[in-house]
Amino acid sequence: MDEDRGALSGDVREGREDERPAGRSSRMDRAMRGVYIIWLREFKRFWRDRARRIGGFGQPIIYLALLGVGMQNAFRVFGGGEFSYVKFMFPGILGMTVLFTAVFSAISIIWDREFGFLKEVMVSPVPRSSVALGKILGGSTTALLQAVIFLVLAFTPWFFGFSLSTLWKILAVLPALLLLAFSLTSLGVAVAARMTSFEGFPIVMNFLLMPLFFLSGAFFPLQGLPGWMDFLTKINPLTYGVDALRGVMLRGVELSGAAGPSLAQYAVWFKDKDIFSLGMSRGYPDPSAISSMTQRASLPVQVHPLWLDLLVMAGFGALLFALALWQFNRTQS
Amino acid sequence: MDGHAVEVEGLVRRFGDLVAVDGVSFTVARGEVFGFLGPNGAGKTTTINMLCTLLAPTAGSARVNGYDIREQRNEVRESIGLVFQDPSLDDRLTANENLDFHAVIYAVPAREREERKRRVLEMVELMDRADDMVITYSGGMKRRLEIARGLLHNPRVLFLDEPTIGLDPQTRKHIWEYIEEMKRREDTTIFLTTHYMEEAERCDRIAIIDHGRIIALDTPDNLKDMVGGDVIRLRTGDDARAEEELKSRFGVSILEERDCLCFEVERGEEFIPRLFRELEVPIMAVNLQRPTLDDVFLKLTGREIREEEADGLADLRSLARVRPPFAR
Q1: Cα distance from N-terminal residue to C-terminal residue, chain A
Q2: What is the mean pLDDT of residues A122-149?
Q3: Mean of the pLDDT values across residues A291-301?
Q4: Which site among B105, B132, B156, B161 would you substitute to test the A interface, given the most A Cβ atoms closer than 10 Å to its Cβ?
Q5: A5 touching B (Cβ < 8 Å)
Q6: Which of A333, B104, B196, B279 is the most buried (most CB within 10 A)?
Q7: Would you say B23 and B214 are in contact if contact means Cβ atoms under 8 Å apart?
Q8: Could you read off the pLDDT of B70-84 as tens digits, one per residue?
Q9: Contacts of A23 in chain B (CB under 8 A)
Q10: Is the pLDDT score of B325 beyond 70?
């Protein structure tokens, strides 16, 4: 806790002339300061709350261990071959972790309103857009941290093994995670900005999140869906997030490499069990086996090219951020 | 010093049909301690919220430190400090961290920060608890910390909304010592709301506000002079007869009050012996009081401030009163 305080006290740069009254610093300077300190507060509150750290780690493990293993066996029974569902699901659960942590971090706005702290911020000279940005970056950071904690699991033999290539994948996946976290926290802030009830927020959010989650491809491949459902998956920001995560983790970073196959190709793959096998019949793989596996699995793991995923996510991010700012500007303290 | 700390012209705020603030106008001089006195719901907090740019006025205009509260909200916000009626600390942070947060958003230069934090914490005697989580503080300590925080960025005007509400008398006394200290040391203008008379007495000037309107504005002494002389409260064996007698023989007019005869005279200490000599009804108790702001409010509105805060029954009681309202 001591170094935390150091950070809070030490780090902000000031103008040189100190006889200058507090108020006259430039507008930009003031805005940045606001973003920084609000971000720092969000982060510290998260870090001190052990329940949140542990709980946030526990949920994805339950999904992976119970749902993942269960489904994997089901796939085997229904003729999916030796397809490693757990591995397929891993990036999906990663996306889910970010989704829930990011969106629910915005509840701190309702909390602050309830306990009065929002007033302290709202009456300050810091512009509201800075307040919103600070909150969003704070929520994104906690979501990212949560995801990184979860990513430690990737090093285990059940997933990607303890190797440099796993570390590289984890690093490569971070920008996509950050983009995803930013968009989703913005969504949470947009909703929380106008809500006054603690009870209402989770209900509204779950109503929004469940479809986002189920239609993202986190649990099942999005191929061969009925038209309406296909449409919904295409307007879901999380679809592109999960697609990017899965692409990077199972295939590697290939910005413009082989894009998703055409619909005709889907039909071909679904008959070709070999694609689903991912080489798992050989038992838990060593790193060299992984790379050969991921090569063979290059078609089904990623539907869109990575650059498109990132671009679409950035677009959603900008849109949701604008929405959050707009809503936050109308909020009452 | 240039101009006034606060200038208000015809400020109005409506909430639907309710007119919370109904065209108030006043000015506050630099370095003044200015009080808003009135019962709960009179429009005090609404006025403060408008002056602090938390709430947009329905009509009228105001300037704080020369900045327009509609057009120059950021400038207003930078130049004021605000202590809310309701708590607004982050109780999951330490006192130090709350102050750090405030210092950063109000752009207190980093090199001065530690010194100023130390000064305000010493002022409110929380230095030894500075690194404890605020959640472990008592109500009085939180209040003191809020006041310390409001002072941290050397505001030119400090708004205090009911600064001592719900505090024990000792803490209240302390807080007033800080307020006076601050006024002396920093030449800060202080704008406060209260419904405590003792608190209002310590202001340089007071505006008495009722139903969203200012009904009087002056120094406490001048306001008390308005009431006239001293107030005598009398209980007798037969109040009705005594009232008759007081009116005819002593030529005083009776103020409205529930359970005793109450009237004002020029020199109370000389009037009482005369009362004992000449009044034919037996006297059971007599009480002489220098006029208070309560009496001023009573005179201006026909009600006491304290009744209003007690409970909703106060309204019923005032309706049920038999005596005619204060007659002049």
Answers
A1: 30
A2: 91
A3: 43
A4: B105
A5: yes
A6: B104
A7: no
A8: 999 888 998 999 998
A9: 75, 78-79, 107
A10: no
